[in-house]
Amino acid sequence: MATTLFEKIWNAHVIMERPGGDALLHIDRNFVHEGSFHAFGALAKDGRTVRKPRQNFAVADHYVPTIGRERGIAGAEDADARHMIALLEENCRTNGIAHFGIDDDRQGIVHVIGPELGITQPGLTITCGDSHTSTHGALGAYAFGTGASQLKQILATQCLWMKRPKTLRITVDGALAPSVTGKDVVLAIIANIGTAGATGHVIEFAGAAIRNLTIEGRLTVCNMAIEAGARAGMIAPDDAVYQFLHGREYSPKGADWDVALAQWRLLPTDDGARFDREVTLHGAQLEPMVTWGTSPEEALPVSGRVPDPAALPEADQRAHAKLALAYMDLQPGMPLTDIRIDRAFIGSCTNGRIEDLRAAAAVLKGRKTTIPAWVSPGSTTLKRQAEAEGLDRIFMEAGVEWRASGCSSCAAMNGDTVPAGLRCASTSNRNFEGRQGKGARTHLMSPAMAAAAMITGRITDVRKLFSFPLPHPSPSPIGRGIEGEGGFKTRKQNQ
Amino acid sequence: MKPFTTLTAVAAPFDMANIDTDRIIPVRFLRKLRSSKAGYDPYLFHDMRFDAEGREKPGFVLNQPAWRRAGILVTGANFGCGSSREGAVYALLDSGIRAVIAPSFGDIHYANELQNGMLPVTLPEEICRGLRDQLQARPGATLTIDLPAQTVTDTLGDTHPFMIDPIYKERLLQGLDDIGLVLAQLPAIEDFENQYHNDQPWLA
Known about the structure:
The complex is a heterodimer.
Chain A (H helix, E strand, L loop, with lengths): L4 H9 E5 L3 E5 L2 E4 L4 H9 L10 E4 L19 H17 L2 E3 L9 H7 L8 E4 L13 E4 L2 H10 L1 E5 L2 E8 L8 H12 L7 E6 L1 H4 L3 H9 L8 E3 L4 H7 L8 H11 L12 E6 L6 E3 L7 E3 L13 H14 L14 E4 L1 H4 L2 H11 L8 E3 L4 H9 L2 H7 L3 E2 L5 H4 L11 E4 L14 E4 L2 H10 L5 H4 L30
Parallel strand pairs in A: 3-4, 3-6, 4-5, 6-7, 9-10, 9-12, 10-11, 15-16, 15-18, 16-17, 18-19
Antiparallel strand pairs in A: 1-2, 2-8, 13-14
Chain B lengths: L5 E9 L6 H4 L21 H4 L22 E4 L11 H8 L4 E4 L4 H9 L3 E4 L2 H13 L4 E5 L4 E3 L5 E3 L4 H9 L3 H6 L2 H14 L5
Parallel strand pairs in B: 1-2, 2-3, 3-4
Antiparallel strand pairs in B: 1-5, 5-6, 6-7
């Protein structure tokens, strides 16, 4: 029978099933970070230990400072944060878990280092107590976030009882225009199906525009699957993935590599396999995207205008948009490119990879930022790579701070917050109220767009900054689409 | 885990969709231990409940006298979307809220509620709106949730059936811990792992 990528992975990991469709799943890889202390604490309280330490990996990312890192843990000025970083190390030592601590050369954001170290591989089940675990699906894994209780269960048993999710294939066909990135694709998808559009589903992203994304671009797309409510996001593995993984620290070696590769090649969805739902978007219609509101679905092409809440199609959207505009201090009808920007942040598990840093550096080269701005590479390895390429000098000459690696202003747990009332162009994944700091206003966008905003101090179409001829002069309207073929049968909400 | 059977409690109408877990508990409180008597109660909806000086905002639903002791929330769609933080459930529970009624939930938050003996009740949009209207009209009124019967009884005495997976229901009714259930299957788990890692030794 023709089966999907997801079904193949699911079926290979079912230890047993219960009536009603619950399955006990084997978990190949589990990641922990400083925030996992609740789970470790509960485990110790029950007198239990980690059952399969070698299948667990730990990294300090959420609470690490991005400055003063040459001082190691002493550089964490915040006593609470310092305690949590030390507690993770202690929990890992007690339980025999590999730990990439604050001063380890391999330290970085959990969803960046997993693929980078080859811990993430096609066909695996991967968990972490973090919603953006969906990122790892870009290499053809089934990866999903859990809360502390399920994390504790995984630590204690290396399995999880799970209800089988439904499947949704989102096909983005055609070719993307220049300067349209994975970030723009996924923001367009979320604007199209909504933040609850994929609840209860695993998304497989497919189509020419997805296949032609780099590994970095694919990781960005799967990273934000959770912002559409999805249980996980995934993309069929291909030669680009195998090349990416070959020779990495935890990738299979020698004869194991050949066996693994042969298995990986069987993973992609078979022709004729059925999905519970299908949605199609046309890649050529997409533009650089920017969020205007306080939900990732409140996003529009940069050529758009702030919508009038009253004109939105659904009651919930109208109510949410009204609150969002008040919080964001925006007026309906104003062009997005008239919105002034006070801060800019490039980094996070969404857009902190080498391609993202190169794209931002290409925009900033020979130019100056007019606003306070900082870059936090997704990992310490990437930081060194970027420095070897001279990207750090481009940022610093542009007046942009070049910082160390961590979750930084995306989770805003480490003190890298945006002051109340200020507006931040951010390459992260959530524009929720208060996400980047109490009262902070977040506009999500791609790294090149954030770099363009640094230069002009307002939301800017990066293509116009370069005086490129516009490949698609008419703005494509994006709203809640009607499912099925054709895509973009949308209500025009921004005209 | 405390079993959940029936609950009759003051229900607060919270007329908002996409209430994300950053809103339920802002990130700066996640580093706190839950060990004090108040637990995570002081952090629930913190930035909606309190102004910059720490004073209560009188307009917020849970600050109004009728709903201060609410044990049930009735909200808009996609409750608990966003971050996986289980602190959102701790804050709800420690404030005395044991059930949320909504048209839909974020998947991770839904699982987190179940893991802590909270009941997420999914009812259609129009029924949730009707419940919120009733509760607005009669501030401080109670709703009754009967898990064995899978019904919500509204302020007029009408009952609304809801669906819940039989496994989740059983687990809540008995207050069962998943880890015990899993480890009871240890022989089957070990058989699976031996075979699986024999085929793929690099994953062990």
